[in-house]
Description:
The chain has helices at about 55-65, 110-115, 155-160, 165-175, 190-200, 215-220, 250-255, 280-285, 300-310, 325-335, and strands at about 15-20, 30-35, 45-55, 80-85, 100, 105, 125, 140-145, 145-150, 185, 205-210, 225-230, 240-245, 260-265, 290, 315-320, 340-345. The chain has about 350 residues and is an alpha/beta fold. Helix 4 (about 165-175) packs across helix 5 (about 190-200) and helix 4 packs across helix 9. It holds the Pfam family ADH_zinc_N. Its cofactor is Zn(2+). Belongs to the zinc-containing alcohol dehydrogenase family.
Amino acid sequence: MGDVQAPAGLPAEMDAWVVARPGPMDTHPLESVRLPVPVPAPGELLVRVEVCAVCRTDLHLAEGDLPPRRPRTVPGHEAVGRVAALGPGTAGPPPGTRVGVAWLRSTCGECRHCRRGAENLCPSSTYTGWDADGGYAEYLTAPAAYVYPLPEEAGAAGLAPLLCAGIIGYRALLRADLPPGGRLGIYGFGASAHLTAQIAVAEGAAVHVMTRSAAARELAVELGAASVGGSTDSPPEPLDSAILFAPVGDLVPVALAALDRGGTLAVAGIHLTDIPALNYERHLFQERTLRSVTANTRADGRRFLELASVHRPRVTTTPYPFREADRALRDLAADRVEGAAVLIVGSGRGTV
């Protein structure tokens, strides 16, 4: 970083993980490194990371499913931490304030999508842990206008998954057009799905979970699912809405076939394997709808965090020491994580 200095009173360097060589997790695409502590620009905050949840999007970036936008990026976009410093002229929360740094990092605010409240579709949008270094590090910077204030009384590990798994799940729930008291199918039951299911149940829905993981089916029952089954099983009743969380295109026709007339399927992931040929009469006729989900707006994030403060979903986490970020991603790839994997960054020295 040349002659740029870290803010006064802070270390000059930090521990971090970077995506060094995108590829399958058994090729060790992540590398543990020492980096300069970043310096916040005007309008930005420097955040000292307490914990960072591990998202499937991080896995897609590490394995190359999501093309890297810059070399050796620090992944991670579900970071909970405290403001360490403010960039020049920045109006924001004072140092020591707990904040959350999420996936959406910036938008232009001027395009037709931003002007109509659809900033998630902004062509100039940027993303934490993809366009800029993220939370697999002791410190990160983020625009002050895009961070979320977080409660002091809650544990950091339980808050982190809310920042992407929760927010994106909520966006997917909106896109699925679930009617009041409706029947919702959920395909795949990881970090995002287990939070979304609880919000739907709390709002009066009957939730049917289809997943290949026996442990995930057990968790779904504990969280109030009306039924559970294998990933290709038929639910016990036609669905008003469904959300596909698993990045498996083969499940799209399965979920569409489970919809009642007028039902909607929302695909929640940023990456999906190829969708096989659909049969119009079986999968789409009778006004069934197939929708994608693209990022989220800040309004989505604020609304979800409000709902979470009311309904207080149980956040199931599997903690990992910061030094084992690569193992967390390997476990996520192999479906060995219950709920959400969370890196305990703390001082960055690998302690839980």
